[in-house]
Specification:
Blueprint: H1 20-25, E1 33-36, E2 39-42, H2 44-54, H3 64-75, H4 77-88, H5 93-116, H6 132-151, H7 160-169, H8 173-176, H9 183-193
Antiparallel strand pairs: 1-2
The protein binds glutathione (GSH).
Glutathione binds at residues 15, 29-32, 43-44.
């Protein structure tokens, strides 16, 4: 919505204590939801595609083959997120080391995709314009970079394409503006609440 300069309001929901109004409208009790008039939409990708159909500028490619590739890579976000989250949310050092061993296989897949997109000259997934793929991966990169301030594993050092992509996304106000100004503090509190290994290093 920031990329499209749509006017909107954000209501944050405490997921530890979900309010009744939220449970009534969220089909699976999860965020995000988009309330548009009387309609409630859920699932990030469905919401993103809806907005992309409704409001210019289009972030999805106009070419159907490219669009299918983009959707496929957006689907891969959950594997990518799980590889990074299992490092950041590990409860013990051993669990984290195991996650560090496993992550490269998944990270390499997106590294290769970014490398194959080289002809598009970056810095975003599809070249010079922000896309829905960028928007899908950014939150996980943003959180990983925060937790790595404590873990200092620097997993991305072996993945130069992901590292450059991450630097681009995290210096883009359309991306960073998606979290509130106290995000870092809240995220650190959440790492503590989840009793992560990272929280023992604060
Ligand atoms: N596939 C869903 C996943 C949504 C999701 O897992 N949301 C998390 C926060 S990032 C949540 O609401 N968790 C609360 C819960 O599962 O109780 C999407 O992309 O919208």
């Amino acid at each position: 919505m920031r990329a499209k300069k749509v006017e909107f309001e954000v209501t944050y929901v405490n997921l530890q204590d979900k309010p009744d109004w939220f449970l009534k409208i969220s089909p699976h009790g999860k965020v995000p939801l988009l309330k548009c008039g009387d309609d409630i939409l859920f699932e990030s990708n469905a919401i993103a595609e809806f907005l992309d159909e409704m409001v210019e500028p289009k972030l999805h490619p106009s070419d159907p083959i490219e669009r299918a590739h983009n959707r496929a890579w957006t689907d891969f976000t959950s594997d990518f997120a799980s590889a990074l989250n299992s490092i950041g949310y590990a409860k013990t050092r051993e669990e984290m080391l195991l996650a560090l061993e496993k992550a490269p296989k998944t990270l390499q897949r997106i590294e290769t995709a970014l490398k194959n997109n080289q002809r598009k000259n970056g810095p975003y997934f599809n070249g010079e314009k922000l896309s829905l793929v960028d928007a899908a991966y950014a939150p996980f990169l943003q959180r990983y970079c925060l937790v790595d301030k404590f873990l200092k594993n620097n997993v991305l050092r072996n993945f130069p394409y992901i590292k450059a992509w991450c630097d681009t996304l995290l210096s883009d106000e359309r991306i960073t503006g998606a979290v509130p100004s106290n995000f870092e503090k809240e995220y650190i509190a959440a790492l503590k609440r989840r009793q992560t290994y990272a929280a023992t290093l604060f």
